[in-house]
Specification:
Number of strands: 2
CATH topology of the largest domain: Ammonium transporter fold
CATH superfamily of the largest domain: Ammonium transporter AmtB like domains
Membrane topology: Multi-pass membrane protein
Protein name: Ammonium transporter
Structural class: mainly alpha
CATH class of the largest domain: Mainly Alpha
Low-confidence stretches: 164-168, 349-357, 420-447
Oligomer: single chain
Keywords: Ammonia transport, Membrane, Transmembrane, Transmembrane helix, Transport
Number of domains: 2
Mean pLDDT: 88
CATH architecture of the largest domain: Orthogonal Bundle
Radius of gyration: 22 Å
Family: Belongs to the ammonia transporter channel (TC 1.A.11.2) family.
Subcellular location: Cell membrane; Membrane
Strand order of the largest sheet: 1-2
Strand content: under 5%
């Protein structure tokens, strides 16, 4: 479990590489800093009140637990006798706390891709703490922490399908976070793209990825880390963890091929960006279903997920919202398909011979939790986004967006470029990263 937690922690720096390569070279540091900044903010708030709000026993209406019950993890690691507190999974509670902390971080960081190249870093940091607190922690409690959503779906099942046999006990499947992580992050990304607004160059002159090898490296590390994400969600080193591992591989590979197939048909060429995006879409697709499918059905679910996500990234051009790095297409579309699509393939223990037998009932329940999570995340994100727009403001000024948000927000650039001379500049006036000092007018700096 500690190895799994470490792998999931790696996913946030991997996301920074993935998003960084997709951004323009004048904004690469900013988008990477958004991931690293999230790692700092959400880790702190998770230790202070995130675990308590997600898994505390003092539930508030089944929506969220009290942030004060286990504030700062006092007595959640070591008891009054100096012994490590046992967790629900049969080992020390502190291990589960660390594992769940990494989920909160990556879920929040995913949203940043929708805002590339145009928002204030300080506003993003405040948003990341607020979103984790008001959206992620409540959803984690509702779905995983014994809250309202898990209980209400059983009630809905009994109401719709009767009270006889096992049909009344149909419960939602969200093995590793399709609802809590990807649908919530994707819905938040869509809302922020609408509230914050488009880049001034979108859609006439959208920036092109500046470093596709960096993006492919980030995708590879995301795939590697995802084995901790899905495999670790078995909470044991057992056959279920192994099943999640092979299902994760199957879905990612099939989705990558599905994405490239659509590119080859539509654009006459399969691209490296498509391969990287496709495998991530497959990972998103299998996340809620990794413990409920077998390798064959994982291939099928992943292939469809890759195709849908590839088509989904075009929604921003059709509807005119600027989702800079395709968070909606990859995470919301693939997350919705994985959460709902599992109902078509789910089997008990992943074996075709042990079918759940729920069929349509499970499809209804999966659709219900997907829609509730999407609406909840969208509504709360809208409130947070509007509040921040009215107070701190979201956008950098137009000049900063045009000449480079890295310089405007971080006083540094990722690369030494022609037109910025450091000749005769003393070390005292150079930035810590060795970049050239900011000139009086950034309009004179040529990329």
């Amino acid at each position: 479990m500690l190895m799994s937690a470490s792998l999931v922690l790696l996913m946030t720096p991997a996301l920074a590489l993935f998003y960084g390569g997709m951004s323009s070279r004048r904004s690469v540091l900013n988008i990477m800093m958004m991931s690293f900044g999230t790692l700092g903010v959400v880790s702190v708030v998770y230790i202070l009140w995130g675990w308590s709000m997600s898994y505390g026993s003092q539930s508030i209406g089944g929506v969220v637990a009290s942030p004060f019950e286990m504030f700062g993890l006092l007595r959640q690691i070591v008891d009054d006798n100096g012994n490590y507190v046992d967790g629900a999974s049969g080992y020390a509670n502190v291990i589960d706390i660390g594992f769940q902390l990494t989920f909160a971080v990556i879920s929040t960081a995913l949203i940043s891709g929708a805002l590339a190249e145009r928002v204030k870093f300080s506003t993003w940091l405040i948003f990341s703490g607020a979103w984790a607190t008001l959206v992620y922690f409540p959803l984690a409690h509702m779905v995983w922490g014994g809250g309202w959503l898990s209980h209400s779906t059983q009630s809905i099942s009994a109401l719709l399908f009767g009270t006889t046999g096992g049909e009344a006990n149909v419960v939602p499947i969200d093995f590793a976070g399709g609802v809590v992580v990807h649908i919530s992050a994707g819905a938040a990304a869509l809302v922020l793209a609408l509230v914050v607004g488009k880049r001034h160059s979108f859609p006439k002159s959208p920036s092109r990825p500046h470093n596709l090898p960096l993006t492919m490296l980030g995708a590879a590390l995301l795939w590697f880390g995802w084995f901790g994400f899905n495999g670790g969600s078995a909470f044991a080193a057992d056959g279920l963890a192994g099943l999640a591992w092979i299902n994760t591989t199957a879905a990612a590979a099939a989705a990558m091929l599905g994405w490239m197939l659509i590119e080859a048909i539509r654009d006459k060429a399969a691209t490296s960006l498509g391969a990287a995006s496709g495998l991530v879409a497959g990972l998103v697709t299998i996340t809620p279903a990794a413990g409920a499918l077998n390798p064959l059905t994982s291939l099928m679910l992943g292939l469809i997920g890759g195709i849908l996500a590839c088509l989904g990234v075009g929604l921003k051009y059709k509807f005119g919202f600027d989702d800079s790095l395709d968070v909606v297409g990859v995470h919301l579309v693939a997350g919705l398909w994985g959460t709902v699509g599992v109902a078509f393939f789910a089997t008990d223990g992943g074996m075709l011979t042990d079918d759940f037998g729920y069929g349509f009932q499970l499809l209804i329940i999966q659709t219900v939790i997907a829609v509730i999570a999407m609406i909840f995340s969208a509504a709360m994100t809208f409130i947070i986004a509007i509040a921040l727009r009215a107070t701190m403001g979201w956008r950098v000024d137009r000049e900063a967006e045009a000449t480079g948000i890295d310089l405007a927000q971080h006083r540094e650039t990722a690369y030494e470029t022609a037109g910025v001379s450091t000749f005769g500049t003393s070390s005292a006036t150079m930035g810590r990263s060795g970049t050239a000092p900011i000139l009086p007018s950034r309009t004179d700096i040529k990329e």
